[in-house]
Amino acid sequence: MTIFQLSKTAVSLFAGLPEHGMGFQFAISDQREISLVIGGRVLYRADDKDDKHMRSYLSAKWLSPSCDDNLRADRFEDWIKGLPNSDDPEPFDDDTSSNTSLSLANLKKATALAFRILTPSGPMGPLPPFGTPYGHLPFTSRVEANDVFYRYEPFPTSRRIDRKTKKIAVDTFAVPASETPFLPTGLSVVARLALPNLFPATFCWAIQPRRKDQFMCGASVPAFGQSGGGVEVKFHKGATNRCEFADPVLLPPL
Questions:
Q1: pLDDT at residue 104 is higher than 80
Q2: Spatial distance between the Cα atoms of 7 and 24, rounded to a whole number of angstroms
Q3: Overall pTM surpassing 0.90 (yes/no)
């Protein structure tokens, strides 16, 4: 597996596009190969290479509980700068759309391609039934007065949460508060939410949208060799936090 830093242009592009799951987006290279954009900052490509940045990931200074919170974001940026540069990828989207969403057919195609790439040792189970009602956020609901949701990300700075405007980007994923006992570590998030990347989602943001903000919800089905089984929500119209965002809580990776 190899990881690359995204250019400022690519970071801005993907920040304005929907997520395909919590913390990741499908991308496609000039060679028409599927990759993943993780946390809006890193391009993740499954290959046979032994990437030193992946091997040493858990020892990064900015992931340490002893890191000064005031220095964590700066140390993260230093780590990003140490990654090799990627060619600017394109969003994997409907050719007939305006780069805002995937059709169900193309989402299924992207999932199948990414599954094949991300599990090079062979199939690890059936593909998730994207395009069917079961397990794919089939319900719509509204935020109640005191609802709190949680979002887990691999990096200390978020591209989906704007702390200045208190806005949550359109098509941003989170989980209800009832899920938090089942997500005690960064890697448990990867497994329970069936994420296609291996980065532990160690930074937990509390999200408190306004009453009556809408969201979609459903169960996370098995995918990418992960168990799934968690409950997810997606703020398909975006949302506005009713208070200032608190700093994210750092979870242990394991």
A1: no
A2: 17
A3: no
